[in-house]
């Protein structure tokens, strides 16, 4: 198990955003969190990423307690709903910045950057400002940057909202390729068809888990 959650509660005053969530996620799995806006998906993902602390319950990410967020952050990648790339930096500068934040040295970052741009067929964009790139390219790049340091788990918060169907399909191909390298992918979405691409899906409603199973079992 790479994530263990038992009885997770998150309150904001009298509002309960996560109401006794319990689930496990396994290594190399594509695990989906499906639910409408306001279902509590982003709150849960922020706790798992070490960006917010649980009110109560047991939460282990890569074997580390959620109350030790600094240790968790070193082991994971994260791509938020609103792009995590800096518009006023070039593609290469963004990659170098994130590589540095993840504790990599320039000696490692430089060749990996070339290799990454080559793999995505983005070599011509290396010196382009992020602000002038199309949405689909930004999204693929943001995902590539989130797994640049080979984390154990990558969290994707509604990564394909607002992009066209072709880009969405290409994005999911990148997710499959990442999972095949043994990286666990934890993805939130409100698209039913995207839930089908996951190994297992959790359906959230009003802060609670109402179902958790494989897509085919849930369909039955």
Description:
The chain is an alpha/beta fold and 220 residues long. 34% of the residues lie in helices and 28% in strands. The chain has eight helices and ten strands. Strand 7, helix 6 and strand 8 form a beta-alpha-beta unit. 37% of the residues are buried.
Summarize the structure.
This protein has 220 residues and is of the alpha/beta class. It is built from eight helices and ten strands.
Features:
single chain; 8 helices; 4-stranded antiparallel sheet; alpha/beta; 34% helix
List the helices and strands and how they pair.
Blueprint: E1 3-12, E2 15-25, E3 30-34, H1 41-48, E4 56-61, E5 64-65, H2 69-73, E6 76-79, H3 91-101, H4 106-119, H5 135-146, E7 153-157, H6 165-180, E8 184-189, H7 192-195, E9 200-205, E10 208-213, H8 215-219
Parallel strand pairs: 3-8, 3-9, 6-7, 7-8
Antiparallel strand pairs: 1-2, 1-4, 4-5, 9-10
- Tally of contiguous helical segments: 8
Low-confidence stretches: none
> What's the order of the H and E elements?
EEEHEEHEHHHEHEHEEH
The portion of residues forming beta strands comes to 25-35%
Radius of gyration: 17 Å
Counted beta strands: 10
**SS content category:** alpha/beta
Our measurement of the CA-to-CA distance between the termini, rounded to an integer number of angstroms, reads 26 Å
Within the largest sheet, what's the order of strands?
6-7-8-3-9-10
Biggest beta-sheet profile: 6 strands, mixed
Instruction: Label the overall shape.
Output: globular
Range of helix content:
25-40%
Overall mean confidence score, pLDDT: 93
What's the quaternary structure here? single chain
């Amino acid at each position: 198990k790479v994530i263990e959650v038992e009885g997770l509660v998150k309150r904001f005053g009298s509002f309960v955003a996560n109401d006794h969530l319990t689930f496990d996620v396994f290594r190399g799995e594509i695990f989906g969190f499906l639910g409408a806006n306001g279902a509590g998906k982003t709150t849960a993902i922020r706790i798992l990423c070490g960006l917010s602390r649980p009110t109560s319950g047991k939460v282990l990410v890569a074997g580390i307690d959620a109350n030790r967020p600094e240790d968790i952050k070193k082991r994971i990648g994260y791509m938020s709903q609103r792009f995590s790339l800096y518009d006023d930096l070039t593609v290469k500068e963004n990659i170098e910045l994130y590589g540095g934040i993840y504790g990599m040295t320039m000696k490692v970052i430089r060749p990996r950057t070339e290799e990454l741009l080559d793999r995505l067929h983005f070599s011509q964009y290396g010196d382009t400002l992020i602000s002038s790139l199309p949405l689909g390219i930004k999204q693929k790049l943001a995902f590539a940057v989130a797994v640049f340091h080979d984390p154990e788990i990558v969290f994707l918060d509604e990564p394909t909202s607002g992009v066209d169907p072709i880009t969405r399909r290409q994005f999911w191909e990148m997710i499959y390729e990442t999972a095949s390298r043994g990286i666990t992918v934890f993805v939130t979405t409100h698209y039913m068809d995207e839930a089908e691409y996951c190994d297992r899906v959790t359906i959230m409603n009003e802060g609670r888990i109402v179902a958790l199973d494989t897509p085919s079992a849930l369909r039955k």
